[in-house]
């Protein structure tokens, strides 16, 4: 399977408690954290 981009080599579901085990860019980590906290972007 080819990667979606240079920074991705696969896709999988993981438990939120396991996120700290992965190398996730800070801006993406913030988006994931916001989603898990029930905070969604305002799309006016």
Q: What's the number of extended β-strand segments? A: 0
Shape: globular
Kindly state the percentage of residues in helix. 25-40%
Report low-confidence residues grouped into runs of 5 or more.
Answer: none
Number of helical elements: 1
Tell me the Rg in angstroms: 13 Å
**Cα distance spanning the termini:** 37 Å
Strand content: under 5%
Arithmetic mean of pLDDT: 83
Largest sheet composition: none
User: What string gives the helices and strands in order?
Assistant: H
Helical/strand content category: mainly alpha
Reconstruct the topology from this structure:
Blueprint: H1 26-36
Describe the protein in words:
The chain is mostly helical. The chain contains one helix and no strands. The protein is globular and about 35 Å long. The termini are far apart. The mean pLDDT is 83.
List keywords for this structure.
44 residues; mainly alpha
What is the structure about, briefly put?
This protein is mostly helical. 25% of the residues lie in helices and 0% in strands.
């Amino acid at each position: 399977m080819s990667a979606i981009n240079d920074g991705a080599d696969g896709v999988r579901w993981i438990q939120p408690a396991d996120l700290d085990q992965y190398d996730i860019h800070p801006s993406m980590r913030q988006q994931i954290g916001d989603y898990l906290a029930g905070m969604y972007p305002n799309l006016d």
